[in-house]
Design a protein that fits this description.
Order of helices and strands: HEEEEEHHHEEEEEEEEEE
Helix content: 40-55%
Strand order of the largest sheet: 1-11-14-13-12-15
Largest sheet: 6 strands, antiparallel, barrel
Structural class: alpha+beta
Amino acid sequence: MRKIMGLILIASLLFISGCSEKKENSTVSSGDVVERPVTVDTFGIVKAKDVKDIYLDFPAFVEDIPVKDGQKVNKGDVLLVMNYDEFKSQMNSTEAEINSLKLEIENNQLEMKNSQLILEKLKKDLKELQDYLKNNNHPDLKLLMSDLENARKAYDDSLKDLKTQQELFKAGTVSKEQLEMYERNAEKSRKSVNDIETAIEKTKYNLQKEIENLELTINQNSVKMDGYENAKATCQDKIKSLESKIELMKRKIDKSYIKDNTIISDIEKAIVYDINYVKGENINTTKKVLSIVDLDSVIVEADVPEEFIKDVKIDSKVKIVPQADKSKEYSGKVTYISNIAKEKNGETTILVEINIDDNDGFLKPNFNVNLEISID
């Protein structure tokens, strides 16, 4: 019996000794004995990291809004039906103007080509006439020069005959009438030479005038060609400007959230909110149409008091309990710790972000949650 009581006493002493060591390990000061905390308890707010504010950068008006503020939507759901026929008309007019300018350039090119051919022929004709005038080998001039040569020979012959007749008249062997006939023949030959020389000068003058007219026409055609080039450059500049304009207009409607005449959700799971228009209202390009929240980007933001931040680490596990339903519990981990503190309500805190591992859709933006951040 004594042996049994002794064993009980020894066991009791060992138990008391063990409890004492656990308590000693959990003390934080020599004066008070407290249990070492295993979590940092705080509260947080559910936030969405990805929020899209939708604006329209072109004139339109609202035809219908088939969703309500705060409604959950899926990818492809219509959020707003709009009418932007005026903007489409502007785009069509701009494209029509571009096509018209391109056609103008094509016609301009054809005219330029024809004018170039004409200009080349005019220059060829000018060179030919200049050669004719310089070398006196124009067909009309050649014929006149030949006639002049014959006329001068005939004139020389008539002068010789006249001289002979004058000597014979002095000798009294020919009559005065016969002498006068030779005189008339000589005068006629002289006049023929003068007439041909005059014709030659006139032909040269006409050639010179023709050359001057050709030079004037060539100059006019050259100016015309320059006009074509300038018109082409002007059209090309206009086309470039209009193409930039139409490209900008197309980019304004080439958005992932615009389909035909509707604004749709381009996010798999989202909430639409802050709808700023009503049916029939004109959309102002500086005023937001609506916002859409990506539910897959939901996180928790918490302000941890500075005295506890040393215990919070990246990847620290977190228990999340929504105040909307405290029977629910979610798990997560710390993904971000701010490097700057802030003062709020007289308390210095550090922002911490926490992801949600098993969000079932119940946690919605701006929900309040209680948090237990595990300490390693």
